[in-house]
Design a protein that fits this description.
single chain; alpha+beta; about 10% strand; about 45% helix; elongated
């Protein structure tokens, strides 16, 4: 059985091409992943879709301001489908 060193020395060009292609594919994959991430400005200033509620001093609601009507609701129990 031939040693890896002798096999590599005979096929240097093939190994270099192989690792070059793997490197290019890896860099392209990392670029593809990073491209879909939000910018730092978007992370620092998120746009909340919840309504702003204006209350009086005694806790009564005066009004709501929103672009789309969305409410935050907690799910306490989940019914099982049978």
């Amino acid at each position: 059985m031939k040693s890896f060193k002798s096999f590599y020395s005979k096929n240097k060009k093939m190994f270099n091409w192989f690792f070059g292609i793997i490197t290019i594919l890896f860099i392209g994959f990392i670029y593809y992943i990073i491209q879909g991430l939000p910018s730092l400005e978007e992370l620092e200033n998120p746009k909340a879709s919840l309504a702003t509620i204006v209350l009086t001093e005694d806790g009564e609601e005066i009004g709501r301001f929103f672009k789309t009507k969305a409410e935050l609701k907690l799910i306490l129990t989940v019914s099982q489908l049978t």
